[in-house]
Amino acid sequence: AQTEKAAKKHKGIMGDAQTEKAYLKQGTINVGAKKLLAKKGSKLPRFVKDIGLGFKTPRQAIDGQYIDKKCPWTGNVSIRGKLLRGTVVSTKMNRTVILRRNYLHYIRKYGRYEKRHTNLPAHCSPAIKLHVGDNVIVGQCRPLSKTVRFNVLDIVSTNQKKGFSKY
Questions:
Q1: Buried-state track 62-94, b at ≥16 Cβ within 10 A, e below 16
Q2: Residue 167 and residue 165: Cα distance in Å, rounded?
Q3: pLDDT means over runs of 10, the chain (167 residues)
Q4: CB atoms inside a 10 Å sphere around CB 55
Q5: Neighbours of 144 (CB within 10 A)
Q6: Which residues are bridge partners to 107 per DSSP?
Q7: Which helix (H) or strand (E) holds 105?
Q8: For residue 135, what are the β-bridge partners?
Q9: Neighbour tally for 54: CB within 10 Å
Q10: This prediction's pTM
Q11: Any residues with CB less than 8 A from the CB of 8 and at least 6 apart, and which?
């Protein structure tokens, strides 16, 4: 009963942002001020930043209601270091995708190359909608979890299926 009242109380303020058991909020926005500033038809304050490096802030990050502290546009994460490309092979985790990066390794004895690959986990903000097969650009950031050190920044091309297709 207590949590239902709290959920109803904050439903108008935060929208559908409360999806976890813990209360989610943007660190730079005072929730109490939202109540005072929220008038009929007025837009609620939202923290959004430009990450630079030539990447535009997605419209969903500016207008959306989601709260993600690991998002490069609305959270406390800065992009620095390497920018890499990869193909999405799995989207089964919550806000995390697995990228496959193919490369060639030179075998000196035979003077030839062999194909190799590595998998790279990356955080995917709710502002970006990804599907298996999409080619994306990821940017390096601070460690977000045990294995995740990259954030998805942009979709280069969408849904290139691997395997056979009808001609």
A1: eebebbbebbbbbbebebeeeeeebbbeebeee
A2: 6
A3: 48 58 72 60 75 89 86 91 94 94 96 96 93 94 95 86 58
A4: 16
A5: 19
A6: 112
A7: strand 96-107
A8: 87, 157
A9: 8
A10: 0.76
A11: none
